[in-house]
Amino acid sequence: MSVLGDSRTRRDAIKKMSSGGRPSCSGNTTDDREFVDNGGNNNKQVNTTEYINKLRVRFLSAGIGAYIVPTDDAHQARGSFLIYFSIPLQIKNFKSEYVHPCDARREFISGFSGSAGTAVITLEKAALWTDGRYFLQAEEELDCNWILMKVGQNGILSSKKHIPADKNLQLKSIPSNLVDEVWSTSQPECPKDTIYPLSFQFAGKSWEDKVMNVREELQQGGNDAIVLSSLDEIAWLLNLRGSDLPNTPVFKAYLILDMTSLSLFVNPAKVTNDVKAHLKSEGCETGPNCVKLSNYDKFFEFLGQTRTKTYQKILIPSRYSYSGGASFAIYEELTRGSLKFTFAPSPVLFHKARKNEVEIANIRRCEIRDAATLIEFLEVLESGIGTYSGSGSKDVQLKLLQRIGSNGAIIHYKPEEKTNKRIVTDNMYLLDSGGQYKDCTTDVTRTLHFGTPTDFQREAYTRVLMGAIDLAMAVFPKGTTDVAVDFVARQHLFNVGLNYRHGTGHGIGMFLGVHEEPGYYEDGKFGIRLETIVTVVEKNLPRNFDGPYLGLEPVTFVPFEPKLICAELLSTKQKNWLNNYNAEHSLF
């Protein structure tokens, strides 16, 4: 856990924070407001007074002036990367979207349940930084002990950019986790389910071949070892899956890979005989294609010994795109001695991003099954039937986030008993659906209306759809970044002064992680989002100047809401694309 060293100046720096005008805490200025129990002015809020006070007692006794609580777990784990782009592309700078409730320390201490944010608690104040996807949610969930820092608005920087603003601030790491000490006996138990192999028919490549490819890249970079802590990279590399994170089939582990051996650190109770046979670990001590199993709790002890090994150079994964890279604890342990290291993105990240032919074929078939089930469900809703049992069986878990009316404006709203609303005919309905199958991970969002939408709702929806269609039709040279095409998805909203407070898309795993897409959100009224998985394909063009040239091809075939489309706003090309999309959907 990162900690700020004690100094009066850092209290002064925190005093300059702005609450972002939280209406639920109005009545005093930010600097004058007393941070006490708010008496429950919102039924979505958790009273954090006791937790914060207990934490302050602990870090004050440790000589600390402030305490940083990130969303991340020890693995800075995040699930989805590059190349099965959801229409369109982007979302950056949020490392740990997926954590198990036993690791949800920031949510415990702040009451904020969004998947991105950083809490900073000083002796006098507490603040939470988050991005535009979560402004409304944070307003509703934070009690008045907390200052909401809206990143990107009114000059608000991210929490990590605030820290170096004061030259007298000193970052300090301490061995104990103070939030866990406060959480104590009420902290949820971490999962203990076993790990299982993913067969070649789904993976499309053996783990031995994957390891060989990674070793080749390490050698090209002058490295002879790498430390992996990203859970999805370990699961992908070894063709293993687990259930340690909600809706994401990964397991807690660390992996050290060098030119002659692999060491996997995992809870031994999770390792079955099938896994041992898969990894060729029985009787294995050394060898390029056998995996030595060690206890998860022994990893950092082993890491300390690694510094004395005769490695020429070891690669420590850096942050890149969706990946948080290695934790500071790993970095600190490996850089204490004279061991040479490279701080660079993990090569596993890029291999995992590019799906092989087997994976792509599986994904195409799987998406059709998933779309059929979702269309059945939507037809049931349209007919007004209250219950549904789908024909598609999920191999792991299903994510079904339904939002009606004003709840749709909360970008990552999760239905709960105390906040849910009835599905009615006079409100917009947003459905964010996704499933985990052994042959694919799905993620699709559609926005519907079961009555008569307003003219503004139809225009907003159509402009979101126009952006999605334009990006789906876009042709761009290889090497184009997500930032370069982001404007394509937003331009029709920009033209009338509208926008959305999140990125335009994200990568998706293959039976791994799933991670926002073109949208529009009218605070307190409704939300619109359209999400379709596409694959990147090479385009066959008359010319090929500095090529190749790429485009996007949908693999999700769930129709758009016709009563929300203003056909007069669509260009001829957009209408043709939509007609072709609907024709392909009808084939399935």
From TrEMBL:
Residues 1-43 are annotated as: Disordered. It comes from the Eukaryota. InterPro entries: Creatin/AminoP/Spt16_N, Creatinase/aminopeptidase-like, Creatinase_N, Pept_M24, Peptidase_M24_C, X-Pro_aminopeptidase_P. The keyword DNA damage does not apply. PANTHER family: XAA-PRO AMINOPEPTIDASE 1 (PTHR43763). This is Xaa-Pro aminopeptidase 1. Keywords: Hydrolase, Metal-binding. The keyword Metal-binding applies. Residues 52-149 form the Creatinase N-terminal domain. GO terms for molecular function: aminopeptidase activity; metal ion binding. GO terms for cellular component: cytoplasm. Residues 548-584 form the Peptidase M24 C-terminal domain. Residues 393-521 form the Peptidase M24 domain.
